[in-house]
Amino acid sequence: MHIKDLFSNQKPVVSVEVFPPKPESPLDTVISTIEAVKDLNPDFISVTYGAGGSSRAYTVEIADMVKNQYGIETLAHLTCVGTGKDEIDDMLAQLRSKNIENILALRGDMPQDENTGKFDYTYAKDLITYIRSDSSFCIGAACYPEGHIDCDSLDLDLKHLQQKVSSGADFLITQLFFDNELFYSFKERLDALGIHCPVSAGIMPVINKKQIERITNLCGATISPRLKKIMETYADKPEALKKAGVAYATEQIIDLLSSGVDGIHLYAMNRPEVAQKIFADIKDVRGSCEHEHQLQ
Ligand code: FAD
Predict the structure, then answer these.
(1) Does 17 qualify as catalytic in the annotation?
(2) Atom 13 of ligand 1 has which residue's CA nearest to it?
(3) Which of 15, 50, 89, 253 has a CA between 20 and 30 Å from the CA of residue 205?
């Protein structure tokens, strides 16, 4: 099923992101994350591509498992960086052969070294245009409530986002953010620009101080003062930080759900117990939002 149809049929669409392990590692953690959330009925599970050095070869394999073994809709990520036209064509053919209908088309993070192979598409919009020429795929794209780290301003980044949407993106998923006001004001700006496709809010539970500092340094997301206080207070108490981080993310999600968000995308970091706890905590709230929507 096309994810754009999930957004039109029901609201909110709740999804989970998993990432493949490094090439030499087994798929165990990914499988346990999928196992942990499958009974909680995520609307789809997305599978990253090459993010943080994970194996690209596993992306189709995991997406295939999610869709064809577990019967859950899936979204396969694909990047311009490190992927030439031939590899893109090969990926598209593999996805088609597994009946995987949804692709998150991304540029990818620019390599630190020169040895990442050639890539034939410069920006995500170029990859989207190419994939769109085969209209059987539903295409998602990334967006950034605080602007993308490589871009000089949020205004300019929004112009680039407009190009991605007019090139054929059907829906958007945001970068992680820790202050919902950033998301609400971003949504207002999208409306003002006439960008009306569904936007899923990307939420990452903080369970490890060093990890979140590394990620926010890379992507430029701001750690809110309230979250900073939590991270500092529980820096040396991993269990307490995990509980507080999960509670913070749950609170963010409940606020977003009660504000009528199109979707929630959980960056679960292959931590099955975290995904499970959050899904269990939002179960009733999510259910009543779906009910409200059906009554409208
Ligand atoms: P683009 O939309 O191409 O934008 C990249 C930069 O170029 C921005 O600064 C933009 O403003 C600028 N730009 C765009 N168009 C133009 C133009 N015409 N002229 C000048 N500048 C322009 N990375 C992975 O490697 N694998 C993954 O699986 C992965 N999954 C992700 C999932 C989500 C939901 C998100 C939010 C990010 C993900 N990333 C992933 C990270 C992503 O690849 C990086 O953030 C990357 O740096 C930008 O990707 P993009 O698709 O947004 O790029």
Answers:
(1) yes
(2) 160
(3) 50
CATH of residue 34's domain is: 3.20.20.220
Q: Best substitution site from 13, 30, 107 to test ligand 1's pocket, by max atoms within 8 Å of Cβ?
A: 107
pLDDT at 292: 60
pTM over 0.70: yes
> Nearest C-alpha to atom 17 of ligand 1 is from which residue?
160
Instruction: Tell me the per-residue pLDDT of 144-164, one tens digit each, with 9 for 90 and over.
Output: 999 999 999 999 999 999 999
For residue 150, report the distance from its CA to the centre of ligand 1, in Å.
9
Query: Residue 206's domain spans which residues?
Result: 3-295
SS3 231: helix
Q: Return all residues near 150 (Cβ < 8 A) that are at least 6 apart.
A: 110
Domain count, the chain: 1
Residue 289 CB contacts under 8 Å (≥ 6 apart), including other chains: 11, 12, 257, 258, 260
- Which tens digits make up the pLDDT trace of 31-55? 988 998 888 889 999 999 987 777 8
